[in-house]
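Researcher: Checking consistency across runs. Here is Pirin again:
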Amino acid sequence: MANRGLTNAILSVSALGTPPFQTLDPFLFCVYHKDAYPAGNPSMEAPRIGNGADFDPTAPYRMYHGNKIPGFPQHPHRGFETITATMEGIIDHTDSKGNGGRYGDGDLQWMTAGKGVVHGEMFPLVNQEKGNPTRFFQIWLNLPSSHKMVEPSFKMHWSEDINKIVREDGATLTLFVGSYKGALSSDPPPSSWASDRSNDVGVFHVTLPPGSKVRVPPSEAPGANRTLYMIEGSQGVVDGREFSDRIYAVVDAGKELELRNDGGGKTEFLVLQGRPIGEPVVQHGPFVMNTQEEIQQAFRDYQNTRFGGWPWEMDDMVFPVDKGRFAFFDGKESVPGEGGKEEL
């Protein structure tokens, strides 16, 4: 790391390390999944590696908790939301409400766990003639106490409808969540902390080819938190400070943030921001509540009800190999539409 002059926006910086990454309120959890899955067989399976709880960061790919197909078979959540923002690869979603879907390659899925839901996230290897590289972020966004016990739901934001800001120098900012210089993301679920635009919740994916830059304006929410993750590349300049390693930084959300790539190769950043909820957080595994008593109740409720049970024939449910991208929610199926890009 080299410092070219003083910085105004950076409050602290450290090595990124292995996921899950550090986050600030209103976020709870952030993982960057990157797996070089091989070509699949007719059952969309990968050659087995690992030991059934596979998170080895040095491996070319991970099975996670999957047995033959990589992924996360059915598991419960309560009290927060998952935001799954994809760049490459396919994810199959199923849940205890009978909803399902296949998405990826730029789509975003937003699930409100609320009072309790069981879901599965599997990564079927749909390509049999070539590899199945997968890259995506999974981010947990907290729910305020007034919304922790809302009914579960999910929304699919298709890549065709996601604003991708493109600069003349080749820099791009994918507006997964929030607003950027007048451009807006698709609407969050109604019970989300992000549904109130004054909370200025943002999830931005910035890609910088050599010689390009992006400026992220100050947050409009007083007291907002903003964190920065350099996830790809060996050369990045953050508010005038040069980094050659992947970093995690806390930055002043009240100041403009300039991100540059002055060197060779592509550099990528993730930016998370939002006004904090400011309530106690008690987490135990897949449950996030405000008190220890609420956590204990969550475990009792799950043991007694299984949050509605599991209506699918397999714990690691996937859809047929030739099934395209789709979302099935509340008895209705939808597929991607048309969209476009906006210029800065």
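Researcher: Does this match what you'd expect to see?
Model: One thing to look at in this run: The mean pLDDT is 93.
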